[in-house]
């Protein structure tokens, strides 16, 4: 997996198979949530994503990991909603990272929003630009795939309404909470470990008395 900013001047790295858009009137992204998963409630979300990505194909999908209570996800939403119109031959997917913890772990999503470019079922590049706008997203896709965006696409009022929500909802950022707890646990472990080693070294127990 390669990590490249939108300022890269290198040749395109991903040779995407562009889909046939004949007969498609509306270009929009798909949101994959647990409530939308096929089959029983116990159906594994990983399988749903893998089926959507199709490992046997070479088409490309831009996948956004977000949470509805993250203000950065909300501010990105209208820009990401407009991308399918800018790149009609590519596919776009968004999923709630809090509902897909196994996917977040699998693809190294420790913070949201997180955007990955997939070819088939393989992650090829990660968007790591701090300025998340339609223009920087278009530059990222062009730099990675060589596919040019439609020139007349802009963020509209409809993009602010959905399908990806741009209004915050109340909730707990479990990814952030997990990260903080993990960091706190690591610091405590390192502290205890250091103290144990110090008392095992001869003469260290008398250091403060002298």
UniProtKB/TrEMBL annotation:
Keywords per UniProt = Membrane, Transmembrane, Transmembrane helix
**Superkingdom of source:** Eukaryota
Q: Which InterPro entries does the record match to this protein?
A: Thioredoxin-like_sf, Thioredoxin_domain, TXNDC15
Q: Which residues, by range, are in coiled-coil regions?
A: none
Residues forming the Thioredoxin domain are 18-146
Asked if the Swiss-Prot or TrEMBL record annotates the protein with the keyword Protein biosynthesis, the reply is no
The processes (GO biological process) annotated in the record are: cilium assembly
SUPFAM superfamilies noted in UniProt: Thioredoxin-like
User: Any keyword Transmembrane helix?
Assistant: yes
Q: What is this protein called?
A: TXD15 protein
């Amino acid at each position: 997996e390669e990590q490249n900013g939108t300022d890269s001047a290198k040749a395109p790295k991903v040779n995407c198979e562009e889909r046939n858009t004949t007969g498609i009137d509306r270009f929009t992204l798909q949101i994959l949530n647990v409530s939308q998963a096929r089959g029983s409630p116990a159906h594994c979300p990983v399988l749903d994503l893998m089926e959507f990505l199709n490992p046997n194909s070479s088409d490309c999908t831009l996948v956004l990991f977000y949470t509805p209570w993250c203000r950065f996800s909300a501010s990105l939403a209208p820009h990401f909603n407009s991308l399918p119109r800018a790149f009609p031959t590519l596919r776009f997917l968004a999923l709630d990272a809090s509902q897909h913890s196994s996917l977040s772990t699998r693809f190294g999503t420790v913070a949201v929003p997180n955007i990955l470019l997939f070819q088939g079922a393989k992650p090829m590049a990660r968007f790591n630009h701090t300025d998340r706008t339609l223009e920087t997203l278009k530059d990222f896709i062009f730099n990675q795939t060589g596919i040019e965006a439609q020139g007349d696409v802009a963020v509209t009022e409809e993009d602010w309404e959905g399908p990806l929500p741009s209004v915050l909802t109340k909730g707990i950022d479990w990814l952030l909470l997990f990260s903080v707890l993990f960091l706190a646990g690591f610091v405590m472990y390192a502290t205890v470990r250091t103290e144990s080693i110090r008392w095992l070294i001869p003469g260290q127990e008398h250091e403060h008395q002298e």
